[in-house]
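Sample entry (107 residues):
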Amino acid sequence: MNKRPGYSPEVRERAVRMVLTGEHEHRSRWAAVQSVAAKIGCTPQTLLTWINKMEVDSGIKPGVTSDQAARMKELERENRELKRANEILRKASAFFAQAELDRKPKF
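Predicted structure, serialized as C-alpha cells:
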C-alpha cells in the first residue's frame, strides 16, 4: 500500500489556523484552503477535512467528535472480543456437556 507519512498535529493545527485567519483575504474559504494547502504540501481536500474535524471537535459544527469516535471504536473492538469469548465458552460448554452424556455410568 502506498501510504504517505502523516502530518504532525502541530502542522495540522497551524494550517487550520492559517486558513481561518487568512480567509478574509481570499474570495472564499476554498480559495484560502487551496492557497494554504499549496504552501504546506497537502491536498486541499485533506486540509478541508482537518478544518471540518476541528470545527466539530470545538462544537462549531454538529457531528461526532474525535473523542467520541475513538471511544466508539474502542467499544466496538471490546464488543467483538467479548462475542468471540462467548462463542468459545459456548462451544466448550457444549463439548463438555456431550462428554458428560457419553460417559458410562458408575454402578
